## 1
Amino acid sequence: MSALRGMRRELFGITAGGEVVDAITLTNANHMEVRFITFGGTIVSVKVPDRHGSLGDVVLGYDTLGEYLDDVYYLGPLIGRYANRIANGQFTLDGTEYTVTRNERTNHLHGGARGLHKVVWSAEQFEGAGRSGAILSYTSPAGEEGYPGTMSVRVTYTLTDDNALILDYHATADQPTPVSLTQHAYFNLAGHGSGNILDHLLTLHSSRFTPVNAELLPTGEIRSVTGTPFDFTTPRAVGLSLDAGDEQLLHGNGYDHNFVLDREAGNALALAARLHEPTSGRTLEIHTTEPGIQFYSGNVLGDGVMGKEGCSYHPYSGLALETQHFPDSPNQPHFPSTILRPGAEYSSRTIYRFSTERTGRRQ
């Protein structure tokens, strides 16, 4: 193991219920550092070098556990049982209608009021050749947030010496239940307190997206991105079309849409997105086994949210790229199924790979 690599675990805080929350910090041979806490499996910092070799923290977050307990913007946690929205907080499964927590007006969002983002996970650390990480585990009891069955879930965070953060998701359940898990880090590759992400260049390997209605629920249509502000098939500045008056952008005051990834049949790992920040030279590539990715441009970050290190966050201070199954799939039978049944295993992998372009603007 390189002398530069390391891993440490320390107390981050204690919840009002007396649950201990630890922070785990992973460092690789290139000095890249990833820090996450056992509350929500939340990523609190990712430090990577810019083109001059200077480390910068490229995810939004807070300094204290209390701020994460009160967070309403999903700054960095794991999301489930179901990522994104379920219309009216209802779905029918095998002839039985279920009602899950309605925590966004009449709809269900990101697993409910106490989804996976608001629980304390157990963590088992590990180290190996060129990598280190931790396995986070949680058992969601039957009826939690209205979901059927008991679900056992584990998520493995692995940092490698080639500047990749790998997330492996696994889940089993004793009754049929919808499952779609993701990670909700907000990225700003110029640095978390550096301003907005409107000049970031984004490429999405997607020729189609799922339009939404005024409540940001999918209409059921799968639409071509050609000739629209949703065409990120070649590098496009995030802010280029925000003021274009497009109805879809007006619904969310920006991008908050699921993109259907162009991929061959099956669930092989494939490139989904590439994000580049020209000034720092930092680049993030995302590979996933999931069929979709939600691009959220940070539209409703409160104006003046106090973040870590005394930084103030505003709309568009960071963006999220959430690998996932499609929103509201339990109510959209032509979308890929998200139903996990007893005896089967939910399995998914997403890789966040960071690199740096030393000179010029990388295209």
## 2
Amino acid sequence: MIYVIATLTIKPETRAELLAAAQNSIAATRNEHGCIAYDLYENVADATKLVFVERWESTDRLEPHRKSDHMRTFGRIAVKCFDAPPKIEIISPERVDVR
């Protein structure tokens, strides 16, 4: 299993457009093979920062997800809404031992 954290910084005036596009993409992604969870959150301190938190069975499932029709459609809309390049992190589910 892996986690994907995708942070988007958007232009405030494009928020409604981005959220509408995200709604369709989220619904379709949740039905993809290998998707365990796929949710969108808002940064409490900055409403122009939206964060996708994703959980996938494996990294092998990410490439089909990126190439899916619904992600391509979302990408065409989202790119017009960005105020900065998205930051995408792929994170291991293994906890770091800090004892």
## 3
Amino acid sequence: MIRPIAESDTVSPDRCASWSHYWSSGVLHSCAGSFRGNYDGAIASFWHESFDTLELQHRVLDVASGNGALPRLLLGLDGGSDRGCSIDAIDLAALAPGWLTELDDAQNARLRLHSGVMAERLPFADATFDLVISQYGIEYADLAVALSEAARVLRAQGRLRLVMHHADAVPVRKGAVEARLIEDLLGSSGLFVCAGSMLPWIALAATADGRVQLHGNAKANGDRAAFNACQLRIDAAMAGAGDDADVLHEARDQVQQIFALAQTEGLQRANIGLQALRQSYAEHLLRVRELVAHALDSAHMAEVMRQLDGLGFSLVSATPLNYEAHLMGWMVRADRG
């Protein structure tokens, strides 16, 4: 039977909005900055191996699918092999992958997307699927409940295959650094606040009369000094972050574009642009905080293995996933029956 809705099954609207905005940008997966297309290398090999035994009559459930990186492989795109099975893909966010236009009618009929669905509350009957999969997704849920739900909807001989965030992996380490840097950018003396104070003066400087008004303006000079001090703090943060300072370079470049907008299109348009930019960083901060918080160390993974044993899985294993000599996550395999 389908697990009943519990009063505790609530999700922050900010979380839903953040991920929905992220997927609406058209990215395929959550590591878009590291992979131009779909995942390849050891990550793709894990999935090809997991899909090898699928047949036409089989059903697959992709949990926390995002924009459907795994369904693409299952449907024969990005080097995958179309096994002809049917696929259900669920995600808490609103999903509308642009790549669906690449599918023929028969493939579209075999893929069903379910937006706004929690991994802890799957809308499927018991023993529905032959394979449940998730790539950097199921760990964001209440994992104990989500794994129990995955076991419930699997058939007697079903399989579970997961790629999960490792606490020591490169994306998690970078995410922890990014979170600290973005917190500073969003702070009361950070880049976005200082840039907002500068916008009226930059817009005023676009005309000769405005530049006259700025001459000797104590408030403008004070705001400029605060902005320059902010730039010096960013310089120091860049030096300390080294290769992980990309987010600071990007933020600076984007603010300069907002400044240019203030001179060409006026203060109102620039303020709207800065507000949208600040919101995008606030949403990004939410996502990287979640990434760091939900990554699993060895002790947490051992607990996952014990739970899977208790749920009736056999041949349970979790091994580190390395991509080009970099730790990228955990590979989890569990079979029933």
